[in-house]
Structures are given as C-alpha cells and as structure tokens.
Amino acid sequence: MLTLLIAEWFGDAGRSALAFDHALIADGQWWRLITCSYVHLGWYHLMLNEIGLFVLVLLCPQPLPGRIWLLRLFVVSLGMGLCLFFFVPDLSRYVGMSGVIHGLFVLGLLPQALKRDWIAIACLVYLLGKLGYEIITGAPVSDAKAIGGHVVTEAHLYGAIIAFVYGLAFGTFTGREIPLPAAASTTENN
C-alpha cells in the first residue's frame, strides 16, 4: 500500500514514467507492463484501490510470506500487462491496481472456497458475475466519472485469469505454494 501512495505522490510525472503506454512498450519500455498497476489517475482512484486491498485483507486473512506476495504481485501485474498489450491493441494508456486486485481476490478466495467456506464461495460468485457483467455491458459510466478516466474492464478479466493460471501453476489452490515448515511436516518416531 505504501508503494501505491509513494507512486501517487509523484503525480503526473510518476504516471508519465510508469503508465501502460502501448507505443512506448512497443518501443522497448517493457517495465510499463508491470508498473502501470502501481500508478493511478488521482487520489480518489488510489483510495478506491486501497479500499479494495483492505477488503481483500479482511476476506482473505491467511498470512503470507513476503516472497509469496511479491511473486503474486509480479506475476499478476506482468501477465495482466502482457494480456493488455497483446489482446487489447487499441488500448493506448492504462493505470491502476484493480486488475491485480481482482487477481489477488481469486488467489485468496478460491482456496477458502475449496474448503467449503460459504462466504468465500459467495464472494467468488459475485466476482464472476461482476466480470461477466463487465464483459457484456462494460463499466458503468458513473465509474469513469468518479475516477476521472475510462475503466479498463479487460484488466479485471485478465488479472483474474492470470491469477487463476498462477494458482494452478504454483499450487496455490492445493496448498503447495506455502509449504509447511520442516518441523511441522516431520513425524516423530517412537
């Protein structure tokens, strides 16, 4: 969260240096595929994303090692950025954390849902419904007015898809991503 605040503090200069810009990425500024998720259209847009992260922590309270958080953030940010670059070629600029947040919800809620946590199941059903609604109708105009720019609903979809693929690849949904400490996984022989 602090990283997002620092990035916003730099304002237009930070957005200009870090935003997804299709033409600049095509010219070799590949870091924008990742950094676009950490800059916002303004303080209100940032606040909405911070609230999303707060809700994520409330709904998905499993403590994770820092290396897992960093890996998740890196993979989902990069994967979403690549998807936007290759599959939404008309998108010229993008900023915001919402696509990554959608992905983090998938990674946090699905393991709980697989354990029959009905709140997690309800949240996942809502998330899937929201993604389906956005695919069919797009984002509400009121959302664009509130944040001061177009809502890129494809980022939400790709963030969720990349997170699902990450979860399958890294064992998030089976518990392999975070192995038990050696002392807890060994058995005593008497």
How is this structure best summarized?
Helices cover 68% and strands 2% of the residues. It is mainly α. The chain has a two-stranded antiparallel ribbon.
Tell me the span between the first and last alpha carbons: 48 Å
Helix content: 55-70%
Low-confidence stretches: 182-190
Please report the number of helical segments: 11
Average pLDDT value?
90
Structural class: mainly alpha
The general outline is globular
Beta content comes to under 5%
Kindly report the spatial arrangement of strands forming the biggest sheet: 1-2
Whole-angstrom Rg = 18 Å
Q: For the report, how would you describe the main beta sheet?
A: 2 strands, antiparallel
Provide the succession of SSEs.
HHEHHHHEHHHHH
In total, the number of strands is 2
Please, could you describe this protein's structure?
It comes from Solimonas terrae. It is found in: Membrane. Pfam families: Rhomboid. This is Rhombosortase. The protein has a domain at 42-90 and 97-175. Helix content is 68%, strand content 2%. It is built from 11 helices and 2 strands. It has helices spanning 2-9, 11-18, 22-26, 32-35, 43-59, 66-87, 98-114, 118-137, 141-147, 153-170, 182-185; strands at residues 20-21, 93-94. A two-stranded antiparallel ribbon has the order 1-2. The longest helix is centred in the middle third of the chain and has 22 residues, at 66-87. The protein starts with a helix and ends in a 5-residue tail after the last helix.
